[in-house]
Every structure is written in structure tokens, then in C-alpha cells.
Amino acid sequence: ISGIGAATVHAMRDWVLQTHLLAALLAVLAVAGVAHDIPAYKAVNGVVGVDTYFGRPPATDDEQVERFSAVKRVLQKTVGEGGVGEHASVLVLPENTMNLDDPALDFLVDSEVLRPLKRAGKSAVIGKLAQGQTGYLNQAAVIEDGEIRATVDQRQPALLSMWRPWAAEHFPLDWSRNTGFEIARGRVGRVLVCYEEYIPALFMLDELHGGHDFTVIMSSNWSATGARLPEVQRLHSLGMAKMFNRPVVRAVNYPLHMKN
């Protein structure tokens, strides 16, 4: 038994080492300016990621209202003729796209998000924030038939900027959280949120649990000043996805200045 255990530990150590080396290699290639030679994620039939250029999260009531209008415009363009989601059944929007939990915004949630999706015959996975019992939660909301059917919580928030147990605005971490969800007639996905793209162990945990058809990645690089750091982040998750031959749908929010 001990020999088998030692062999297993040795194999896992090599696997983790190879994972880190692959991610590092892809990152180096990106910084070196040769990322155009790196293949893209393996696509998921009928599921598309919708990148946005909203910039920072809304900070005032007026900005909250404008964010809903902006999301509605994005949805209309995405599902309209020639849009990337015209023939898709599921749309994925980035991390912390909007506030879906404030009762004062219920009318906007319904009129600008839920009803337009239902009229278009689309399901969606949309990033949002929530207030939990021990702090904030970075979540993915699963929307079907015009209703929020489920939520998935981020496991590992960014250290210091989000995971700060000494602060009032704290995002607790929990690697045991279930990241799986069902959508579009029983298809199963698993969610990774932003900072989690940098953590190979979380990819491996998802593959260990298995049972999913694809991975949803939602991120927000709203504070980026250039394209290189967002590209390094993308290449980390790309390396892991290719290692497991896992189809991925990724949606990212960028600052407005990166739109062109």
C-alpha cells in the first residue's frame, strides 16, 4: 500500500510541476509578444462568451441604472442578426456584471435582463456580487426561462484585495464550494471566476470531481492599463484547459480604452 501511495504522490507532484511549467511557458510567450501563435480555447457548441467594456463596477445609483441599460444594449446586439449569440442557446457575461439582488432594482432586473433573455429564447450565466453571512460572495447567476435558477460561488477570491478577514468588505474563501451547474437541457458546466484562473489546483479539483461538459470562466480586468496582463491571465487558464482537453467559454470585462 505504501508503495502505491508513494507512486501516486510522485505522479501527482510531476503533474503539478508540469502544469505550472506549461502555464509559465504560455505566460512567457505572451510577454514575448508571440501569443498570436497560441491556439484559442476549445469552443462549446451553443454557448458563447460576451466580452464587455464597462470598466469599473457601478459606484452610485445613477451608475447602477446606466449599467442595466448598457447590459440590455449588449444583449440586444449579441442576439440580433449577425451577433455572436444569434444562434447560441446560452450567453456568458463577465464577473460582477451587475447587481441582481437589490430589491430596489428588481424592476430593472426583470425589464432589462430577465425578460429580454426570455423573449430571445436564451439562457445565460452572468457574474454578480452577493452579501453572504460571513462577507461578500462573487457569484455566477444561472438564468433560464426568465428566472435566476441557481448561483455558483467563487472559491478563491483575490488575496488582500478581496480576501481580507480583518476588514468589513471581505470575501471569504472556500475550496469545497460546488462549482457545477446545469443549463440548456441538462448540460453541465463548472465555473471559474477571475483570480481562480491563476490556480492550477482549482482546475484539477474540477477535473477530479468531473461530470461536466465544459468550463465557464468569467473575469473582470477593468483596472488594466494595457493588454499584456489580461493576456497572461488568459494564457494561464488556456494552458490548463488544453492539458485536460476541456472546452471553455470565457467572458471578460475590460476598461473602455481597450475596446479598439
Features:
260 residues, alpha/beta, 4-stranded mixed sheet, 35% helix, single chain
Tell me about this structure:
The protein is an alpha/beta fold. It contains five helices and nine strands; from the N terminus they run αβαβαβββββαβαβ. It has helices spanning 2-31, 61-79, 106-120, 200-209, 228-243, and strands at residues 47-49, 90-92, 123-132, 135-144, 147-153, 180-183, 187-193, 214-220, 248-253. The chain has a five-stranded mixed β-sheet with strand order 1-2-3-4-5, covered by helices on one side. Helix 4 links the parallel strand 7 (187-193) and strand 8. It is globular, with a radius of gyration of 19 Å. Residues 1-13 and 30-35 have low confidence and may be disordered.
The succession of helices and strands, N to C, reads: HEHEHEEEEEHEHE
Please give the largest β-sheet. Answer: 5 strands, mixed
Alpha carbon gap, first and last residue:
59 Å
Spatially, the strands of the biggest sheet line up as: 1-2-3-4-5
Specify the overall morphology.
globular
Which stretches are poorly predicted, pLDDT < 50 over at least 5 residues? 1-13, 30-35
Indicate the percent of residues in helices: 25-40%
